[in-house]
Amino acid sequence: MIGCIIALIICCVMCVYRIARGPTPSDRIVAVDILGIAVVGFCAILSAISKHDLYMNIALSWALLSFIGTMALAKYLEGRTYDE
């Protein structure tokens, strides 16, 4: 479990770097999406360690909101409205 946590921390650091220094807005959106996936991974590991299913509910909610937010930002960058 410690190896997984270290790998997720490294992933988070690299995503934050890409968010701060990304050359294009598309790179930043992808980094935010991957950071959301890393948070879901942290919740899954925490759920496995503590044996509480609450963390898996949080992970599922986070994943759904992250997906919707990524789609909304992608449509915005494409120049389309939410109706299209």
SSE ordering: HHH
Q: How far is the N terminus from the C terminus? A: 44 Å
**Mean pLDDT score:** 88
**How does the overall form come out from the CA principal axes?**
flat
Radius of gyration: 15 Å
Structural summary, described in words:
The protein has one domain. The protein is 85% helix and 0% strand. It has 3 helices and no strands. The protein starts with a helix and ends in a 6-residue tail after the last helix. The model has no long low-confidence stretch (mean pLDDT 88). It has 84 residues and is mainly α.
Give a short summary of the structure.
The protein is mostly helical.
List keywords for this structure.
single chain, 84 residues, mainly alpha, flat
List the helices and strands and how they pair.
Blueprint lengths: L1 H20 L3 H26 L3 H25 L6
Helix pairs in contact: 1-2, 2-3
